[in-house]
Design a protein that fits this description.
Elements lengths: L3 E5 L2 E7 L5 E9 L8 H15 L4 E6 L4 H6 L3 E8 L2 E12 L4
Parallel strand pairs: 3-4
Antiparallel strand pairs: 1-2, 2-3, 4-6, 5-6
């Protein structure tokens, strides 16, 4: 059953519980490049929030590529640090935490 994934023809989002209380890891959001800047990424993130609630999540942990930092900032995620990307340590990923609002 894990990770939870929502797929459509224009993109997907994937989540995984961390085993640490209500902390949910956002494994990824992908938007087809032809749909970029159309609001589809925001709708996928909203889906991720809904799926996280179903997993009893209270916070979503996000490792963001440099290109997506402004996106997560705009959505209200709080930058909590930086970490090297596991497959390319020279690339630094921003770490964000998003508190899941009460439904």
């Amino acid at each position: 059953m894990w990770p939870r994934t929502s797929r459509g023809q224009r993109g997907y989002t994937a989540l995984r519980p961390t085993g640490m209380g209500g902390l949910i890891l956002l494994e990824g959001i992908f938007v087809d490049p032809t749909c970029a800047r159309s609001g589809f990424g925001t709708r996928l993130f909203e889906t991720a929030v809904q799926l996280s609630r179903k997993m009893a999540g209270s916070v979503i942990l996000i490792y963001s590529s440099p290109r997506a930092v402004e996106f997560y900032d705009r959505l209200g995620a709080i930058k909590i640090g930086m970490t090297p990307f596991v497959f390319s340590p020279e690339i630094q990923l921003s770490m964000f935490a998003f508190t899941i609002p009460a439904s």
